[in-house]
Amino acid sequence: MFKNKVRVVSLCLLVAALTVCTESQTESQTKSQINLAVDVATFDQAIKKEMAVEGQAVLLDVRTPEEFKQGHIAGAELMNFHDPKFQARLGKLAKDKTYLVYCRSGGRSGKTAKMMKELGFVRVYDLAGGMIDWNKKSMPVKKNQE
């Protein structure tokens, strides 16, 4: 009789623990919005929506300074993916902001978005096809004048 009570109590504790784990996993999935490889239209909408409130979002260009000078999306901040301190700099960014990340073709920005997810960032958009697709869609580009 005692063994049966122990089994019932153990089973109840197991069910309760699984319920708590499932709820917190669902809650963290709801909070996390890592959008890998979004198309140009979605990325443009995200820029307009997320950048509407100053300080809420960061448009992050992870190309080289030379690529950036040739043309970038207005309002973008440059953070060179090939900089040896790139990952350390990435880790210092505020994790509660929305980040819109792009590069030339989507490779570096995709890797960056994955790193950001691993670092605990919760809202990241990665532009699929990068500036190549952005330019194909004739989206606006700002060029630096030297």
Automatic annotation (TrEMBL):
| Classification via InterPro entries | GlpE_sulfurtransferase, Rhodanese-like_dom, Rhodanese-like_dom_sf
Q: Which UniProt keywords apply?
A: Signal
Q: Which residues cross the membrane?
A: none
Q: Which SMART domains match?
A: RHOD (SM00450)
For this protein, the record's Pfam families field holds: Rhodanese
Q: Does the keyword Signal apply?
A: yes
Where is the Rhodanese domain positioned along the sequence?
53-143
The signal peptide stretch is 1-22
Q: What is this protein called?
A: Rhodanese-like domain-containing protein
Name its species.
Answer: Sulfidibacter corallicola
Q: In the record, what lineage is assigned to the organism producing the protein?
A: Bacteria, Pseudomonadati, Acidobacteriota, Holophagae, Acanthopleuribacterales
